[in-house]
Design a protein that fits this description.
51% of the residues lie in helices and 14% in strands. The protein is of the alpha/beta class. The strands form two sheets. It has a six-stranded mixed sheet, with helices on both faces. It has a five-stranded antiparallel sheet with strand order 7-8-11-10-9. The protein is elongated.
Length: 338
């Protein structure tokens, strides 16, 4: 595109969201940012707005188009997305083809996401990009919150995605999908509609097509915005609890070459929400993923002690002895792990 589109409310809203997100992370002139683009309305709106703001801020942009190879004609879709980004003014556009491990037992969506994020991390490192920008919208956030609620996978999943999450930036979490589509229409950008987004075999699609419309019909408009606002409020509370737990862990844990110890007389006074987090931090030292069942079993050694035997968990054994909760590893821990 050579002609700059006339400013419309949708264009102004998306540009403002990008500008404010960058201001929060403190990008400065000369920084390089990598944008993930699928060719859909959300990511192309993100690219279009970023090109405009980057020119004003003196930033360098690069785009990654990830081809998962899961649909017939996906190479052509990826090349079309790359062409659209070049037309918008991005000089460095890379098409990355990934191999999705469908045998991992995670399901196609999760496996594709893992492959995509790894490819983006690799390219971010190669290009020395400061951040990677993703096109998730307010609608995606609402769907994520509902998915978390239905799966019962804990408050972190209900807290949804973050606008700033390490190297990942999601400026459009405050923008709904209708606005990104209008941005593209107002800018003369043709966008791709992923057929997977209409396939009811996927839970997220059923939430998008069947659940949210019914909820809005019965309860009134604004449900997606309310769910996103709830996620933000919950995330603030969770971050505060995590901070308190981290402080308690640092204060109370005593480490050794093969494990660590926690004094029962002190940790049993902790609120359950803090205690479970302290236990989780203790288990994480041993480098293995632990479930809530594992954490609850260790908490039982603190709050429901009746002489239980040693717990054998993945990579670590836990026992209560002489008023101390002892975490033992069969391996020597790395320096500073505890």
């Amino acid at each position: 595109m050579t002609d700059r589109p006339r400013l419309s409310p949708a264009i102004a809203d998306v540009r403002r969201a990008v500008r404010e997100n960058w201001a929060r992370v403190g990008v400065v002139k000369g920084d390089r940012l990598l944008i993930a683009c699928s060719g859909g309305a959300d990511s192309l709106a993100l690219v279009g707005a970023s090109v405009f703001e980057a020119e004003r801020a003196g930033l360098e942009l690069a785009v990654a188009v990830v081809d998962h190879g899961l649909q017939q004609g996906s190479p052509a879709v990826a090349e079309n997305a790359a062409h659209a980004c070049r037309e918008l003014g991005v000089g460095r556009v890379t098409v990355v083809r990934v191999q999705v491990d469908l045998a991992a037992g995670k399901g196609m969506e999760a496996s594709a996401r893992d492959a995509r994020y790894q490819a983006l991390r690799n390219l971010q490192t190669k290009l020395n990009a400061k951040f990677v920008m993703l096109g998730h919208t307010l609608n995606d956030q609402a769907e994520t919150v509902l998915l978390g609620l239905t799966r019962g996978s804990g408050p972190r999943s209900v807290a949804g995605m973050q606008g700033i999450d390490g190297i990942w930036l999601r400026p459009l979490l405050v923008i709904d999908r209708a606005t990104t589509e209008q941005f593209c229409k107002d800018s003369g950008i043709d966008f791709w509609v992923d057929p997977h987004n209409s396939d009811s075999a996927y839970t997220r699609v059923r939430i998008r097509k069947n659940v949210l419309p019914v909820v809005e019909q019965e309860l009134g408009p604004g449900v997606a915005l309310a769910l996103a606002r709830t996620a933000n409020l919950l995330r603030q509370d969770l971050d505060f609890l995590d901070q308190l737990a981290s402080e308690q862990f640092e204060s109370l844990s005593v480490s050794s070459a093969t494990g660590l110890e926690l004094p029962v007389v002190q940790i049993e006074k902790l609120h359950p929400a803090i205690l479970s987090r302290v236990i989780q931090l203790s288990l994480q030292v041993f480098g293995t993923a632990f479930s809530k069942t594992h954490i609850d079993a260790v908490c039982e050694l603190v709050g429901n002690w009746h002489g239980q035997k040693e717990l054998t968990l993945p990579g670590v054994r836990v026992v209560r002895q002489d008023g101390v909760l002892v975490f033992k590893s069969s391996k020597t821990l790395k320096p500073g792990a505890c």
